[in-house]
Amino acid sequence: MASVSSKVRKAVDDATESNPDLQAQVAALKEDIANIAATLAKIGKTSAKEASSNASSTFEHARARGEDALDEIRSQAKALEDQLTETVRENPLTTVAVAAGVGFLLALIARR
């Protein structure tokens, strides 16, 4: 029993053999389909390249923003350190008292 696909091929082959104009049209149609497939392949490659470029650009932008944020955090930490150092130098006794109080509270918490 022949399949539908083979019956269609046989009918097309029989029709094209008896009609040269139909043969030319089928050949032109095959060429058009091949051109469409090639164009779609080019579009796919271009889209992939664009997506890769966009991803790379986004990554670089995010990395730059992360580095900027890290620099800002470092700057703020340095400013806080400088401020604490200055406070300790201006009030050494207060600093020792606060440190002792914090130590005492940590000892109470650690006992439990």
UniProtKB/TrEMBL annotation:
TM spans (from-to): 93-110
Keyword set includes Manganese: no
Highest taxon, organism lineage: Bacteria
Signal sequence bounds: none
Assigned keywords, A-Z: Membrane, Transmembrane, Transmembrane helix
Disordered, as annotated region: 1-20, 47-68
GO MF assignments: ribosome binding
Family annotation (Pfam families): DUF883_C (PF19029)
Alphabetized InterPro entries for the sequence: DUF883_C (IPR043605), YqjD/ElaB (IPR010279)
Comp. bias (Polar residues): 49-59
All residue ranges annotated as the DUF883 domain in the record: 86-112
Protein name: DNA gyrase subunit B
